[in-house]
Amino acid sequence: MGRVSVMCFFASYGLALAIELLRALGRSKLQRAATLAVTAAGLVAHTIYLYHRSQTTSLPPLLSSMQDWMYVLAWLVALVYLFVSFSDRDAGAGVLALPLIMILIGAASLFSPAQRPPVDLQYSWTMLHVVMLVFGIGGLLAGLIVSVMYLWQHWRLKSRTPVAGWITFPSLERLHRWNKWLVMTSVPLLTMGMAIGVWLVLVRSGHDAAERVWSDPLVVLSLVSWCVLAASYVWMLVAVRTPGRQMASLTAFSGALLLVTVLASQALSRLSHGTALHGTSSSRSTGDRP
């Protein structure tokens, strides 16, 4: 199991995407079965890798490092994609889900692979915090895929554009129902996960850390994304009939904003960290000069 590398499941998902795109040349049940089989093989390798990482670090992947956290998020999206594909043969989400999975795996290189320090007495709260966040964000990313499918299908039907034979999406009613349940699930999970995270920061660093937390761009933009989702959540609770297109637009916007925020913040963090290291080494070399 230790020989399973990131490239193993990344290549599997890439091959599945290639097979999915080749269906444009001729749709067949064999190609669909091949796509699902290769994706399932990638998910198995993905699972083995995460299990081996947890055995190596003696911590769950959600607590070992931010890089492993991203791999878990990609694993969750792949699991949802397979579940939806097996339960509904018309859910042609591969052209959207597989690229997103590969983006998450590739973007994991932006995150620190360093092992986190051993968890303290708040282990249970920390585990609950990260589990709620990963499932909330995973549900939001699944909602992003479903929302794009809905908007694509809505535009095609409104403009009477013929759909390519190899791209088949479920009905608007079914997509709307999926999106509604994803939002109804993701918002409470994200809310509780973010609240526990802020509480843990205050407990570990004192109340003086509150100003530092709320000045973090990642926290601010995540809060904006959460507000959009919360508005959708309240809207669905009070509205007699929620317009599917508006809800899909809100979910797609908030999901894309959260994804870009997380990836951009990590890229900027690594860039600033590299600049700081370069400045430190330069000052040291300058100080050594007579």
Overall description:
This protein is mostly helical. It has two domains: 1-113; 119-265, no CATH class. It has helices at residues 6-22, 29-57, 61-64, 66-87, 94-107, 123-159, 172-205, 209-214, 217-238, 244-287. The longest helix has 44 residues, at 244-287. It is globular and about 60 Å long. The N and C termini lie far apart (55 Å).
List descriptors.
290 residues; mainly alpha; 2 domains; 10 helices; 79% helix; globular; disordered C terminus
Residue-averaged pLDDT: 75
Question: Radius of gyration over alpha carbons?
Answer: 21 Å
Instruction: Tell me the number of helical segments per DSSP (H or I, 4 or more residues long).
Output: 10
Query: Strand-residue fraction?
Result: under 5%
Compact overview of the structure:
This protein has 290 residues and is mostly helical. The chain has two domains: 1-113; 119-265, no CATH class.
